[in-house]
Target: DNA-binding transcriptional LysR family regulator
Amino acid sequence: MGLSQPTVARRVKALEETLGVSLFQRGPNSLDLTEAGRAVLEAASPMAEAANAVPRVAAAYRPDPSAPVRITATASVSLFLSLHAAEIHEAAQPAETAYIPTRRKLDLAAGEADIALRMRTLPDGSDDLVVRRIGQIAFAMYARTPDPQAVIAPPEDPTLSRQAAYVAEFAKGRTISARIGDMPIRYQAARTGLGAAFLPCWLGDSDPDLVQVTRPQGDLIEDVFLVIHRRSRSRESVQRVADALATLFKRHRKALVGG
Model:
């Protein structure tokens, strides 16, 4: 915090006097939170998170044409984008591009990202978000052989996602050889012959060492939506990258849906 110990001690003491409770149990060489201290810490945590968000929000409103264009997407989509990073970089110039692969839905309003590629369903409505469907991405099971007896399963509970539930159903009567959540690592494991893995079709179909064990259909074909906060549209680099992404998905439509 850049503060000296005496300064922190005085401020903690002042806070205790204001609240009328002891926040710490003080020992000769220790300082432990009391029950009241733990309760106050829990109540104050959202305040800290809100304070940390302030610089991000302010930066999002600060006109800076050279600021990086930050794209957030799942690992499957991010890996696909990485194959076309030069094209996306060309669209962003003179700004840089930054990729944020995560399944967590980053807050565009808080400035956590500039462009989000989200899958399956249209994001919850907000007048400040501009949303357009740019394509689809399909998934299937891939292995070294057409009839694999082992499966590389995701680590999460099958009830938590459609993909995990699909793999769990496919694995019935087969051996679970490993549980791997990271998609690129799961792909490499499937290439070694460890077992069948759930992969995006654009990746599995492009590898001559893998065969498609199941056909993509129904819930295995997901819509992809491009989401931008209205504030970010004023940045030309963001708009150019958004257009480039839409063009990219249109040009590779057949590969993305397993065609």
Summary: The chain has a mean pLDDT of 88. The first strand starts at residue 24 and ends at 26. Residues 79 and 111 are 23 Å apart (CA to CA).
